[in-house]
Amino acid sequence: MTMAARVAELDRIRQDVRHGLAAATEAQHAKGKLTARERIALLLDEGSFHEVEPLRRHRATGFGLEARKPYTDGVVTGWGTVHGRTVFVYAHDFRIFGGALGEAHAQKIHKIMDMAIAAGAPLVSLNDGAGARIQEGVTALAGYGGIFQRNTKASGVIPQISVMLGPCAGGAAYSPALTDFVFMVRETSQMFITGPDVVRAVTGEEISQNGLGGADVHAETSGVAHFAYDDEETCLAEVRYLLSLLPQNNREMPPTARGDDPADRRNDRLLDLVPVNGNRPYDMRAVIEEIVDDGEHMEVHERWATSVITTLARLDGQVVGIVASQPQRLAGVLDIHSSEKAARFVQLCDAFNIPLVTLVDVPGFLPGVDQEHGGIIRHGAKLLYAYCNATVPRISLILRKAYGGAYIVMDSQSIGADLTYAWPVNEIAVMGAEGAANVVFRRQIADADDPVTMRQQLVKEYQAELMHPYYAAERGLIDDVIDPAETRATLVNALAMLRTKHAVSPSRKHGNPPV
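Structure for Acyl-CoA carboxylase subunit beta, as requested:
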């Protein structure tokens, strides 16, 4: 056979590999789902994909497998670019063995993960598979073990993004849980350890797949999903946007993108946006949108643990991670879930050289038996540990109130914030004046002829002595009290100064954070 004939044969095989069985493609589309290659085409820059091992086949026998040996073995792997920067990707092909993982399938994923770590580039997994390939037994389970080990090895080294575009059950769900971000698509993607049938058999509870592990459940209730969207196209477009905010690896800085928003733009709108009365709620998102470049930010875990906001944005073109109290939800208190949410976000930003800006308006930790018994002490300590351990530039701004332990935990100067600012309505204290008066002046109030009047008088005295806006500044616990209208300019200038910050960490294998 001539070389030309061999090349023609190769072209035919490649065409078969690229297109797959028409009936299987139609079935995938009928479910409202794209194929693996269609998804990769949406994720990567046009024409940039380079496939790895497209001709791989499994070697398993038994249960009819020897008669079914399709190319790719149900997973498409390779690399391409997103906004011109290298990204590695693997995508389960549900048309082949339902995307189930076997030995060859796993080895392809292992290889692309190793390549991503070696090259120092992000890894995106497009998940749409039926779990371990039962016909291959324990070798399929070992394949998952290799993926988990590499997820852990890559953690904090390269960004890892999991995009759930179909079912993900059993042990397969642990790989996304080990990655930095999880995206889900409503109605078509589900994640659970045990499915509805097992739940029904063990507990007698009746529940659908989406009710047990759908996108909304994981975005609002469990916190497993960071983002949830209505369709695959929007989801993959948002993955591209997220990648534009992240560095390639932990040795690089996030990409800058200079725009037309002036660095010294005044924020006069903030004077009316935030009520002076600390008991009145407002939407912290509006504050963030007023401060950041062009009002754009990408909120992480938007619908879970909503008393705190965690979001990525730019200030004068520089990517920053913003942790902010949300007075519109539970008055902005810290509870078990919001502490966990903020702690992991702080760790993410610190791992990938993203400066942290903390906007504080916090009345304290949420009181209650459920919170105490649920471990608010250790969960709150996660956020404290994350901030204390972070070496990236850290700036905190107290908008109104900051009380008790929550003040300390929300990146106060005493735990290592590089710069701390406050607005001229700030109240920093052990607790609010009303509560403090009840404790400090309990006897005076009880013995007074007019307890109500006495209490009001003592509350005002406490506020005047210990809670006036300049009390912390006078003691060097904040660096300056600023005009709210100058917030953006102040943050931009501070970040510019801190851009070359270098912190030396103590020599250790790793810390032992609270769990």
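The mean pLDDT is 92.
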